[in-house]
Amino acid sequence: MSPLLKIDLNRIRYNAAQVKQKCHKFGISVLGVTKGFSAIPQIVQALLDGGVDGLADARMENIIELRNQGFCQPITLLRIPRLSNVDNVVRYVDTSINSEVTVMEALGNAAEKKGLLHEIILMVDVGDLREGVLKEHVLDTAKEISHLKGIKFGGLGTNMGCFGGVLPSTENLGLLVELQHTIDRQLNIKLQVISGGGTSTLSLVEEGKVPVGINQLRIGEGILLGTDTTNHRTIPWLYADAFLLEAEVIELKSKPSVPIGDIGRDSFGNIPQFVDVGVRNRAILALGKQDVYVEGIEPLDKNIKILGASSDHLIIDVTDSQKQIRVGDDIAFRLSYSGLLSASQSRYINKAFIGGPI
User: Where does the record place the Alanine racemase N-terminal domain (predicted)?
Assistant: First the structure.
């Protein structure tokens, strides 16, 4: 049997509802981010059933597929639009994040030709050094945006934790609110949306420390996995096992822990390192690097250790497992965000859903 990704839709609905409830308490809307699971429609529907206020994705391919499947909810594009793709963006997307005036001009022209008004969120770089204009350039950029036809200047946003690892704080999120006030005061533009990041901002929500004025978060990992990688924590009030990956044991033997012979490079060009801990019970699973990002999975049984992987095989040490492992058994794994990202789009991994439509 092929590796299997088990997806508990009930737990995803629950997590979405919990996140929405906590955020709405502070006047913060929630966009359910669909890119982490390749916008699989059953999971998208679970997010909506849980009450998210809109959807967001970084891939136009996912967004177009969602529209073709009949999803008519507001969708935000989370990657700066390509200049070569503005026609598709204004056709399929309600809102896009932006930092380049040239692209915003092109979006406006494309929207005008179609008789549309495309909303943009101006991204501000508050320190993570990914997308966004620096704070000292925000007012001038806002002036340029205000003259664009076909464009609705919807608000300001920022991204944290994805490149530089910078954590959200009352200070850097407060900067967005200050910039909103400056734009209102000097340009008489009343922005509707101040988007304060994603899952990494939930800890501030829990503590009641999100600055007043932040009114949107874009949540993926927290709802899907109940984790917050940037803050290195499991979120205690959410399910952390809505996704489980299972793979079958295809060999089980006692073998030395160090290869015999001269060590060269493995099939991926790396020189492997081994520690001699004697003869161990080793299982090979029908799961490899071509199936999933191996560094993004962790055995559910904490007594099992991943030793390594090739393109088609995962080698694990099962010596200390309390369960007797046999050929044909399935071994279960939790996934990190990177693991889910790869498993969800892998055509070699089957998907099974627990909990149907409500």
Answer: 7-222
35 a catalytic residue: yes
75-77 and 54-57 beta bridge pairing: parallel
Domain with CATH 2.40.37.10 in the chain: 243-354
What sign results for the dihedral spanned by CA atoms 292, 296, 300, 302?
A: positive
Which pLDDT tens digit goes with each residue over 144-175? 999 999 999 999 999 876 665 678 899 999 99
Which CATH code fits 8-231?
A: 3.20.20.10
Q: Where in the chain is the domain with CATH 3.20.20.10?
A: 8-231
Q: Determine which one of 20, 22, 25, 35 is catalytic.
A: 35
99 burial level (CB within 10 Å; 0-12, 13-18, 19+)? buried
How far apart are the C-alpha atoms of 176 and 125, rounded to whole Å? 10
d(CA 304, CA 300): 8
Predicted TM-score (pTM) above 0.85 = yes
How distant is the alpha carbon of residue 79 from its chain centre?
A: 12
User: What is the distance between the alpha carbons of residues 266 and 144, in angstroms, rounded to a whole number?
Assistant: 54
Contact 7, 43 (CB under 8 A): yes
Topology annotation, domain 243-354: Lyase, Ornithine Decarboxylase; Chain A, domain 1 (2.40.37)
Q: Quote the pLDDT of residue 127.
A: 79
